[in-house]
Amino acid sequence: MLETVLKYSSDTTTRTLLTEALYMDQAIVMANHPQPVIMTAVIKLFTTMLDRCSPEDSLLHLRQNIPLIMAQQLHKHATISTHLVLAAFSLALGRSFTFEDYAVDCDPSLALPQQVVLFIPLMALLPHSAQDIALCHNSLMVMLDLLHKNMELIIPLIHKAHFVDSLLCTLKKSLHTEGVGVSDVTGESECEVVVSDITEILSWIINCLVASPQHKNFMLSLEVLHHLNLLCRGESAVCGGQASCVGHLQGTEAALLQVALSRIQATASTHQHTLPRDINDSLKMEKTSVSGSTSLHNLKLFSSGAPREDSDSGVGSVLANYTTIPFTKSLHNISEQLFVSQSQSSPALAAENSKKEEKVLSHSELVDRFKVLIQKATDFLFMSAWSSVEAVASALPSASAPETFSLFLLELLLCAAATIIQRKGNSERCGWERMVWGCQDILRMHLNHLLALVTSPRTHIHTRIRAAQALASHPKVHAIISYTSKANPQLLYKVGIFMHELRYQNENKLDESAIKSCEGVLQILEECSVQVLPPPELYPPHGAMREWSVVSEEKRQWQEESSKIAILVVDRCNKQDKRLLTKNTHIYEAVARECSRLSRTVVDRQNVERKIVLGGIKHSQCRHVHLTHRWRGLVEILTHERATWHLSHAYPRSWQLDQTEGPMRVRKRLTRGRLHIKPRYLMPEYSQKIDIENQPSPLESVLKGSETESAMAVMIERLNVSERIVHMTKASVVSPGMEQSGEILISRTAMYFVGEQVTIDMNQVVKLDVTVATSPYLSFYQGGSSSEVVSVTWPLDNVREIHIRRFQLQDCALELFLTTGHSVLLAFTDTQHRNQVIGMLSMSDMPNLSSKATLPEVTAQWREGHMTNFEYLTQLNKLAGRSFNDLMQYPVFPFILSNYTTNILNLNDPTNFRNLRKPIAVQRPHKEQHYMNNYEITTQISQNAGNGPYHYGSHYSNSGIVLHFLVRLPPFTQLFLRYQDGNFDIPDRTFHAVQTTWRLASCDSTTDFKELIPEFFFLPEIFLNSEGFNMGVRQSGERVHHVQLPPWSCDDPRRFVLIHRAALESPLVTQNLHHWIDLVFGYKQTGRAAVDAINVFHPATYFGYDVESGSDEISREARKAMIKTYGQTPQQLFASPHPSVSNTGPPQNPQAPEVLHEVRGLRWGTYAGSPADDRPILALVQTLKTPAIYVTSISPTELLLMPSHTHVLNSGINKGMNGVYILSSHHHDGIIRCRRLKDTVAHPLVSVPHYDEVMLCSCGSSQVWIGLASGQILVYSVTPSHVSDELTACVPPTFLLAHTAPITHMHVSEAFSVCISGAKDGMCVLWDTNRLSYIRSIGSSGVEVSLLAMSETLGDWASVSPLGSAASVLRLYSINGALVDSAVTPAPVTAITFSSAPEGTAINVIATSLADGLIRLWSVWDLRPVRELRTDRARQPITSLHYTHDNHHLCGITESGILLVWESSLVKTKIPKFITVPSL
Questions:
Q1: Strand, coil or helix: what is 639?
Q2: Helices within 388-425 (DSSP H only)
Q3: Which of 384, 749, 973, 1229 has the fewest CB atoms within 10 Å, counting from its CB?
């Protein structure tokens, strides 16, 4: 269509199209297409563009090698068609072309060099046409006719169109074309038709070049011969010297040499205007052609003597004046045919050339050319003879082309020798005779070698016979033999030996004439004084064997001599190969540069167009995805269990662990999730959960297509529009049971992960069709879809810490800890790539990046009593590379207790604790010998196996152990099922009782030596089968359900965890914990100390284990599997014994009330108001001058006294006072204002909708939560300005919907990333402050929630609701909504707060102030009242209670504005500084 439009458009339109729409380089690139239809259309378009563009542009395109580049594109694809070849002919000839309509006209314009390059695309297609013999034949015949009618085309075609290269490539492909048949016209093989055609074209080229007056043209003919010889040698090396393709190529080379020698002889003869023979006797063979057919069944023969009368066009007319050169014709016939053909085709041109030759070509030039050609002919014969095998050559039915050519050469050299011996003077000699006399020495040498070669037994017997006949019948043979014997008599001696062998050893193969010829040659040789062997009948007795041994020896010597000559010839050819192959290097380099330029131009132009198109598509998709995400957000907000459009039949009812970390890295919070398991894994009474999971989510059918349509469009939009990527590398995000490989991209403000594939359980790789960006947090369990990759963004503002990590015992990973409470483990291909990423991050702006605590710092804090045992172990695990994201490097904690059977647990009794000095497996002395024997046995085995000895065959912590403990808690349940091939473990082996686990690890089993995981000290949910998993029935008949707990815990998981935590912090453990640290993190981890401590594990668990040292692939894979399953020893942190603790804390008050009846030795702590403190001190009573209704901390030593309707936002402790902002609400205009603490002028921050009323505000470090009278909650994200430090809010806010009554109280916990809201209808809702999403709701009693508070250490929270006007109900819940207990207070509660002393070292309390001025303290373990604080100096209700950071002071403000401060008498501290905040 483009070609038609361009062809018939006006000149103005054509110029516009060629300059703005159609570009020549694009047409060239389009030619690189496998379909012939497309390639044909491109050539036609290119032809039309050349025709319609200006002459200057056309000439410029030709000079830029555009046709050659197009030819490269076309040559890449082997598929061809007749229309494609016709289009190439049309381009070359400059006119519409078909085989049927072809007319033989001499077009002088074709001789212009700049248009000859248009033949290059045709030359590129010609080799592929060998697939269609008829098409190839027709094309070659047209080219032959063009050369006949335009001889000036020959040299430009060779130099500029690579004509000879194309012919030789076509020749090679035709010889290797499969499935060739036999022509039904000529009876010869179809491939032989093409071989014959190409031979004739090359013969015509040689005929025109070899006698050209210009020496460079003669050298060009030699290059043609050498290229053909190079092809022949290459085929011989690949296919063998006896292959048919080699035979055809040798035949072609022989024909060309015959033509060249004949042409030189004819040229020399024409110097006297005579020809050796009359040309009328030459045999003229008619050539055939195929007319527009793809088979040879339409071959027709046309007479060369009579022109066709029925048609003046067609392929038949191509050969009207041309004759074929048969390989076996005589020298004179060949030369005469070519000479006459040239004269008939262009008489004027032939006459002109003849005149030029007479005028220009000198005698010395003829002599030199004849010498070169004779040398080439002899070299050819020796190489051909060397590649043949005597036995094979003798067995052939006829002589090969080289041997036939050798007879021609023999005739020529005999003729030359006869001319030489005539002894004429210079004045009497004709041109031929003068030329022969000029090279007589060379002729004599080559004649000697040729005689030995043609009579050698390696030559076919028919050739030898014809050579003998030629010698015997030559009239001057005696003179010739005498003349040649002077050069090398030894060679003529060999000729006599070979003729003797032919006559007497092949007598049965010779006829009478052949015998006479052989005897005649022998007689002639003898007459010329050449030694010959006598006839056998003349041999003396026993002399025959000696004579025949002489024959054999001469044959061997000749074989060696001829082989040496052939090797020298090949070496000479190899030297010429290099020169010829590099001859066109400059052309190739120029074309390569032009191709590169064209590619860049086209790619740049396409990129511009692509960007325009893709930009529109991308923006459309991004908008679509943005809307989809907004819809999903709306669906989540509006369809949860307390939302307007809640669908109970589709809402998930299962809970799974949220990966958000709280204080000291505890992960306690559960979140909604789907199990994605089969019903058989659940007990029948819980199976309804699976039925619900099978229901689609609301609007899922509408939004599902949008999700798969463009999953990463939002991220790509940001990357392409507003982000500059400074670094990119391959990496994997590692999470429990899964690796997600992809790419890490780092910009100036964020780090991106673009997922590619998922590896599940490190074994199965799942390729992804869709990459889903559903959440800004990369979760290890995305809705249960194990093959779903999450592409995620981590803003650099959120990065809090960066730690170097190992992965699969390779130092190639790092772990990011974010301010959101999440961590990300990234594994790279090697250490270098990991370090490059760390280097790029270190140069980025990360404002919240804090300095990592060093090992000496944390050790010193622990020794001095400023850090608990739990926190210290958490820090050691972190520093040693243990990660919650890698089950093989999960944090490890020690077994603490050994008593799990009694009703009473005494934490002051050492017998109730495990021996921390020894590994868990050797808690009983009798087991030590077993593991020592293991070490001895493995020592002997390891000497041959290459592995070190060990006591234990696996490890105390690995993925199996972690999943064993967490099997009841999704998503670890699903991971456990995958780990166990889709089944729960054997019931008796399943984690069912703490006592059984301890017994197996410490004494009963020799293969079970597991330590504990951190969850044993803070997560009671791991002991409850809340989801109702069907884990089977034990042999005792007992169903495996909840974990059996020790009697002293009263079968209460929460109580067990609290007691276990207290046991970890007990003085006995504190004094001995350093011994266990030596075993796991210290100097007893490796070396002699580990051997002495019976603490050596399998070598595959240690860093540095060489995977590649296996003897074979199976052993290497086994080593990799061991690394992935055995477990990994933590990084060694201490090379010497760990120091013991220096401060065990204040002594326990023996008079302190009992915490629990079942446990002895629990400590209340030293916080203000602790029951262990006999005399809490009222340290301060002060009447405030400025009204204040509550007190809050901004630092460990500074507290703010806040007026009504004001709120504190502390954007970061590192910023000090500059990061503290004061917000005020309840303004009549609905605007919430803000100022920095040190400023006096406030500015508007956000505006609340006028149709609603602000009930209260609560602030986090970067969020403002606003509760409204309608029950809605607005959440604004706020950030300080980098310029003025003013607070700015991101709009629009997030609307959270769950309440249907006015919000009465809110509490934001930064530690656990939750917000609790209470409403007038008594319902409390927990919100996720990271995702700003609904978690769960508790209660809906209809009685308003007046107060809320949350523990910053446990995550438990308390609510207060009025009970009439004289009392209140205090309820205590866990962070996951479980009601711990409730209590009724004797008076209304006016304020509430939690103490936050370190867990385990103290029993924290809930402090409540009552309306009568009494402060009552309640134990957070069981909500039992443990103490009351009262003062006569302030009997008014206290409206605010607050513990300081160190919990040593309890502050309260009365209704009348009196500040009260209680402090502990157990610890001497200073009263903190109070700062009064004025109203805005």
A1: helix
A2: 390-395, 401-420
A3: 1229
**1377 pLDDT more than 80:** yes
Return the structure tokens found at 1022. Answer: 């791991």
User: For residue 1227, what are the contacts with CB-CB under 8 A and spacing of at least 6?
Assistant: 1233
> Which amino acid would we find at residue 457?
P
Structure tokens at 718: 């940001």
Residues 1344 and 1364 sit within 8 Å (Cβ to Cβ)? no
| Interior/surface letters 472-489, b for 16+ CB within 10 angstroms, e for the rest | bebeebebbbbbbbebbe
Contacts of residue 818, Cβ cutoff 8 Å, sequence gap at least 6: 794, 798, 799, 800, 824
- 1207-1240, pLDDT tens digit by residue? 999 886 455 677 899 999 888 888 999 998 888 8
- pLDDT tens digits, residue range 518-528? 888 888 888 88
Candidates 150, 137, 138; CA nearest to 104 is 150
pLDDT confidence of residue 111: 43
Structural contact between residues 552 and 562, judged by C-beta atoms closer than 8 angstroms: no
Would you state the torsion angle of the CA atoms of residues 434, 435, 440, 445, taken in this order, to the nearest 10 degrees? -160
Q: Provide the token pair at 972.
A: 């670890």
First to last CA, the chain: 77
Q: Which residue has the higher pLDDT, 306 or 73?
A: 73
Whether the CB-CB separation of 250 and 307 falls below 8 Å is answered with no
Q: Residue 850 to residues 257, 794, 816, 1445: CA-CA distances in angstroms? A: 87, 17, 12, 20
Strand-strand pairing, 771-772 and 810-818:
unpaired
My answer on whether omega of the bond before 108 falls inside 30° of 0, hence cis, is no
Pairing of strands 1438-1443, 1449-1454: antiparallel
Which CB contacts under 8 angstroms, 24+ apart, belong to 1034-1040? 1034/987, 1034/988, 1034/992, 1035/987, 1035/988, 1040/987, 1040/990, 1040/992
Of the candidates 1131, 1100, 810, 1135, the residue with the CA atom closest to the CA atom of residue 955:
1100
Of all helices (H) and strands (E), which one includes residue 753? strand 750-760
User: What Cα–Cα distance (Å) separates residue 1355 from each residue in 281, 823, 1326, 1378, 1394?
Assistant: 117, 20, 12, 12, 10
In this prediction, residue 8 has a pLDDT band, given cuts at 50, 70 and 90, of low
Phi-psi region of 865 (alpha: psi -120 to 50; beta: other; left: phi over 0): left
pLDDT for 475 equals 87
Under a CB-based contact definition with an 8 Å cutoff, are residues 312 and 392 in contact? no
Q: What is the pTM of this model?
A: 0.66
Cα separation, 495 vs 1435, in Å, equals 143
The pLDDT tens digits for 1410-1420 are: 998 899 999 99
